[in-house]
Design goal:
Elements lengths: L2 H30 L7 H27 L1 H8 L17 H36 L9 H20 L1 H9 L1
Helix pairs in contact: 1-2, 1-3, 1-4, 4-5, 4-6
């Protein structure tokens, strides 16, 4: 299997995972916020937000499944390996670490992107509607979710440097 083929498969699976997480995780939690809206304009705003989230997740899914080569070229995922093919017997520790960093970074981004967007919307709703319930840990959860997004992005972007550092 070529490195490029492996990353195509990984990106398509990631896109499917992101879509499933959005549909079964974010969407139900956002629909629960409709009960806290006091007037029609806020309910319409929440419906528009939910529609945009679904539209965005469908767009991301379509892009990840239809154009994985653009993502591979953008992040240069297939470069930096000793060989063009993935063979278990030829895997060295640097390649395994690089691959692991890509996978961990990707899942950190996917896992926290939807929750960060939902928490940002929740913070916006709390600032607009005084009837919205307030919890102590909302800001901390938003901070950790955003930090996980940044960490996942850094793991993907600097995967080669990190692998070289640990190889020494």
């Amino acid at each position: 299997m070529l490195n490029r083929d492996f990353f195509r498969l990984l990106i398509k699976i990631t896109g499917l995972y992101f879509f499933i997480q959005t549909v079964f995780g974010v969407l139900p939690s956002q629909l629960g916020f409709l009960g806290f809206d006091s007037d029609v304009s806020q309910k319409i705003g929440t419906f528009i937000y939910i529609f945009l989230i679904v539209l965005l997740s469908i767009g991301i899914l379509y892009y990840l499944i239809r154009f994985p080569d653009k993502i591979i070229n953008l992040f240069k995922l297939d470069e930096g390996f000793d060989r063009d093919t993935i063979s278990i017997k030829n895997f060295n520790p640097k390649n395994i670490l690089t691959l692991g960093l890509c996978i961990i970074g990707g899942f950190l981004i996917i896992e926290n992107l939807s929750s960060t967007l939902a928490m940002l919307f929740y913070e916006f709703k709390k600032s607009v509607n005084p009837m919205f319930p307030k919890e102590k840990n909302d800001s901390i959860n938003l901070l950790f979710s955003a930090l996980n997004l940044i960490l996942g992005s850094c793991l993907i972007i600097f995967r080669k440097n990190i692998a070289e550092y640990f190889e020494k």
